[in-house]
Design goal:
It is flat, with a radius of gyration of 34 Å. It is mostly helical. 64% of the residues lie in helices and 0% in strands. The protein is built from five helices and no strands. The longest helix has 26 residues.
Length: 154
């Protein structure tokens, strides 16, 4: 009964704060406050407060063992060493300082003589002549930019 009273009191207080935030035209903040205010009532109505209490007791027991048990400290040391090794290998991999990278053979061998993808079909028109205003050297898109730059004297 006391748990229900406390949870609904917390929900009412949170809704009141959300109302005050909405009155000041801070609707995003009011929505957040309202969402958090619904949590105590939802936890009570679903029966999750006993579960939260059990989790809290187990965490307290683990923390007490953490201080006095050397096995736990060994586990923490192993977790720390693992984290340091993961970060160090990531850092070395980003710098490209992996030794022997040039000595590795190519996975697929030499490049094939024919491209894997067929060239795009030519548009109908005069064969061998590119479309008007476009270059065939791969820089056709830059022709417009070059023209603008020439007009401005750049």
């Amino acid at each position: 009964m006391l748990t229900a009273a406390i949870s609904f009191l917390l929900t009412a207080a949170g809704v009141a704060v959300a109302g005050l935030r909405a009155r000041r035209r801070r609707f995003r903040s009011a929505t957040r406050w309202f969402a958090v205010a619904l949590l105590p009532a939802g936890l009570y109505l679903t029966g999750l407060f006993p579960l939260a209490a059990m989790i809290g007791r187990e965490f307290a027991d683990w923390a007490a063992k953490l201080v006095f048990d050397p096995r736990v400290w060994t586990g923490i040391a192993l977790l720390g060493a693992s984290a340091v090794l993961l970060v160090a290998t990531r850092w070395v991999g980003r710098r490209g300082a992996v030794e022997g990278a040039a000595e590795r053979p190519a996975a697929a061998g030499p490049a094939p003589e024919q491209p894997a993808v067929a060239p795009p079909p030519r548009t109908p028109g005069k064969p061998g002549k590119p479309a008007a205003g476009k270059r065939d050297d791969g820089l056709g898109d830059f022709a417009d930019i070059e023209e603008i730059l020439r007009k401005r004297g750049i």
